Request: fold
Amino acid sequence: MNRETRNLIVVLIVAAILGVLFALYRNNVHAQSLTVNVNGCKVTPSTIDIICEGATPPAVCPPGQTGTPPNCTTPPLPGPPGAIVCPGYANTRILPIKWDPKGQQHELSASVGGFGANDILITQFTTGASSPDRGFTTMAESSGPPTTRVAKLSTIPCDLVPPAYTGQTPQFGLAFGSQPGYLQPNTVYYFNAKNVNCSGTCNVIVTLQAP
Reply:
């Protein structure tokens, strides 16, 4: 094989490789680490993203919900200024409770219209300055039958996405810190709770001992 024929073959091979790379580029195939050598000729294409046709797309929550399946949640609906409305409940009961490290604070769900079978009760408090002490918040029956509840302490109102407490007397320890699950100073928190096996009205008393 003479030199001209060999050079022609090299040119055709390189052209074919470049054609393949261009097709990969058009189809968004990632070829960052691909290097081709042909008779001393090196071709290293630039970065290209991979998009594979027919691939299963990642799971997403339904429209109007946030999070990642299976932990999807519906954000609060807009209401009057300052109002919180949780979708899917007969009533959204907002129960403010004072943050006071000097002593326990108590509030009754009956004071905000009662805690019905299909209601969600949101006890709202705002933390103060950071403290090395520890505290707690708890919910107990108040002139009502023993009732199982689902509850969660969150920075998001209406949030009952697992992991959440399930039982008759929800209680959460309170402490300041930088790790997940610890309180942040000067932050609004929501003690969200719903009844599971309530018939009629199942009122509670909420206690807050600030750290």
Q: What stands out?
A: The two ends are 88 Å apart (CA to CA). The chain has two domains: 3-43, 77-209. The CA atoms of residues 29 and 50 lie 4 Å apart. Residues 3-43 form one domain.
